[in-house]
Specification:
This protein has helices spanning about 35-40, 75, 90-105, 140-145, 150-165, 205-215, 220-235, 255-265, and strands at about 10, 15-20, 45-50, 50-60, 60-65, 80-85, 110-120, 125-130, 135-140, 170, 180, 185-190, 195. It contains eight helices and 13 strands. The longest helix is centred in the C-terminal third of the chain and has 19 residues, at about 220-235. It is globular. The protein has two domains: about 10-130; about 135-265, Orthogonal Bundle (Transferase(Phosphotransferase), domain 1), CATH 1.10.510.10.
């Protein structure tokens, strides 16, 4: 069974902390503080995304610390505060539970190490620590820097299919939330709004279409995607070679055909 620690409450229930004992023996308060990590000489680097991710080593593990930050129009009102509706409905706690489930199922997502939720009146802020993925770069960056051949595209499709077959829907499936490590293994990240979908497969084509639209936002990436998208779908469908766009001898409609049609819509 996966570790599923109950929240450890401190500071009059204004702070909730949990850690994965398979990764860390404890989660002291300073482990969530980049300044404290720097003072202890533990920081090894950082990465930019929606805010800064800090890479550090602690307890023999190579870790990544991410502070939750808002995006879009909501960020104009508050950079990192969210409305409090209860711990188990908060984004970090939902992501924490999802990552624990992925670890138990062997799905390719970051391994959870620790989480902290800080409540202040009607709002909260939060931090998540995961095990660092060696040599990871985003799918979009890998494409821009000359990702070669069809095999990585098939691997991306196969990884997405594994989550879909397990019933998991990624709310923001885009080229920045897919990572390729130094061995070209595929990982899906940022699951704070992801959820389980029960029944049917109707939502799957739309999820893939979202990814295709994200690739189209960069003209250089879009050109490469035009040449390789069918290989991603082939990986998703189970490794079959890409099918022709139009085959007059085949009037059947299968799941793969539906995916191609929906994913091609902008």
């Amino acid at each position: 069974m996966p570790p599923n620690p109950s929240p450890e409450s401190v500071e009059d229930r204004a702070t909730w902390v949990a850690h994965n004992p398979a990764v860390l023996s404890s989660a002291p308060r300073w482990i969530f503080d980049p300044a404290a990590l720097t003072e202890r000489g533990l920081v090894e680097g950082s990465g930019e995304g929606r805010g800064t991710t800090w890479f550090f080593t602690h307890g023999g593990a190579s870790l990544a610390l991410r502070h939750y930050r808002r995006g879009g129009l909501a960020s104009r009102l508050s950079d990192d505060s969210y409305l409090w509706t209860g711990l188990r409905r908060s984004r970090p706690w939902r992501e924490w539970q999802a990552l624990l489930a992925f670890e138990a199922a062997g799905l390719p997502a970051p391994r959870p190490a620790a989480v902290r939720v800080l409540r202040s009146g009607p709002l909260y802020r939060a931090d998540l620590i995961t095990v660092r993925i060696p040599g990871a770069r985003t799918f979009s960056r890998a494409i821009r820097h000359g990702l070669e051949g069809h095999r990585p595209w098939k691997r991306v499709g196969a990884a997405i299919r594994r989550f879909h077959d397990a019933g998991w829907w990624h709310a923001d499936l885009n080229a920045r939330n897919i990572l390729l490590d130094e061995e070209l293994k595929v990982w899906l990240i940022d699951w704070d709004r992801g959820r389980r979908r029960s029944g049917g497969r109707h939502w799957r084509p739309a999820n893939l279409a979202r990814l295709r639209r994200s690739l189209a936002k960069n003209p250089a990436v879009d050109r490469v995607a035009d040449e390789h998208w069918d290989w991603l779908l082939a990986g998703y469908e189970g490794g079959r070679a890409p099918l022709p766009a139009h085959d007059p001898g085949d009037s059947s409609r299968d799941q793969g055909a539906d995916i191609r049609e929906d994913a091609g819509k902008g």
